[in-house]
Amino acid sequence: MTIGTLAPKSEKKRSRKNKGVVNENAPLLPKSQVLESDAGFDDFNGASFSGAVFNLSTTIIGAGIMSLPATLKQLGMVPGLLAIIFMALLTEKSIELLIRFTRAGKSVSYAGLMGDSFGKCGKVMLQLCVIINNIGVLIVYMIIIGDVLSGTSSSGDHHFGILEGWFGLHWWTGRTFVVLFTTLAIFAPLASFKRIDSLRFTSALSVALAVVFLVIAVGISIVKIISGGIGMPRLLPATTDFASLLNLFTVVPVFVTAYICHYNVHSIDNELEDSSQMQGVVRTALLMCSSVYVMISFFGFLLFGEGTLDDVLANFDTDLGIPFGSVLNDAVRISYAAHLMLVFPVVFYPLRLNIDGLFFPSSRPLVLDNFRFATLTVALISVIFLGANFIPSIWDAFQFTGATAAVCIGFIFPASITLRDRYNIATKSDKIFSVIMIVLAVFANIVAIYSDAYALFKQNKTKRE
């Protein structure tokens, strides 16, 4: 338990009010100013530790969870699991640097912190990266939800969704109606909350649904191990030539995307009852998420072996070879679709803030302008809805996004802020670590982009021939 937890309530409130001063360009609004400016928030005394952990965990666990078993297929069991743990440690360090420089500069947003270190150019770069990354992620979420519930057609084959499999082909089981209904009934109401702490219960349910998938995968694996239906998984990568060696780096965007949560750290920190607990929130969330990632990757690869697909969810569209296999398949797909529905508003929250900060930098705080808040919410949800309906598949684009915008948000920008060291608080080891982080991020992602582009070019060339 931290010292802040033992402090009297009045002292906690004073510490929250002194966390930072909001300037007119800041897209976020600290809790203290909300309390003084909006009577509707008078009963809010700050977010709890558990609520902050669940919101940060939900930000971390998204679509990337289903791609992690495939990374073990590329790297082998041992290097793959070690890479997941290494990325968790790297993420924890990068967020620790963000928090440290945030405290020194009294910033209230990631964009404000970048602006403090690199001026308006740095602030705009961060906002653009968050916008590109989050819009792409949310479109992917909506596409996946449509695929799971209504089915999808690829390579001339139609894969039935859950609703089509249960009720047959009807207008109300079609993709457009299902996605529209989900948008109006779930996304729009949850995206209308002005505080991220209001999503703490849906975030807790979202994490629970991810655990449901894990429990089912573990259960199926144990049954198949007992029946002798699982062989020994490959422990090390299979590299036969230079091309296969380069192909190992294609997993980097998946790892980066799986741990990106930096754009929500300040939002959660601003609402936290005791700001001294933020580092504990980060460590607890990362421990929880990395444990889920390790377990899902291990049992997913153990279960499907070399047949593990890029999206392991697709493996649950086949006969599992065990009793009640179809029921378990449906349970996995339903829990995952519901999980993404609840992740959507948590990722949408920083997207709206950064759009507002980019286009309305001098306006009053977004939470105090109901018209601007509602207009941005409707416009962004509409763009995401149209993108999900008119873009058949953006997995390739998603990989490139993970190798560019996401890696900047998660690693390059925090390291750059540390090297800039405007307040002379970075140690020599911090700067050495930052240089190594930038070099690793740039090198790995250049190779990943090259490998992805080469594979895409080769695939298109094969189709033409």
UniProtKB/TrEMBL annotation:
GO terms for MF: L-amino acid transmembrane transporter activity
Membrane topology: Multi-pass membrane protein
Alphabetic keyword roster: Amino-acid transport, Membrane, Transmembrane, Transmembrane helix, Transport
Source superkingdom: Eukaryota
Keyword Repeat belongs to the record: no
Secretion signal span: none
Transmembrane parts of this sequence: 74-91, 124-149, 169-191, 203-226, 246-265, 285-304, 334-351, 371-391, 397-420, 432-451
Chain ranges of the Amino acid transporter transmembrane domain: 47-450
InterPro entries xref list: AA_transpt_TM
Localization in the cell: Membrane
GO cellular component assignments: organelle membrane
Major location (coarse): membrane
Region called Disordered, residue ranges: 1-22
PANTHER family, per database record: AMINO ACID TRANSPORTER, AMINO ACID TRANSPORTER AVT6A
Protein name in UniProt: Amino acid transporter transmembrane domain-containing protein
Organism of this sequence: Clitoria ternatea
Taxonomy of the source species: Eukaryota, Viridiplantae, Streptophyta, Embryophyta, Tracheophyta
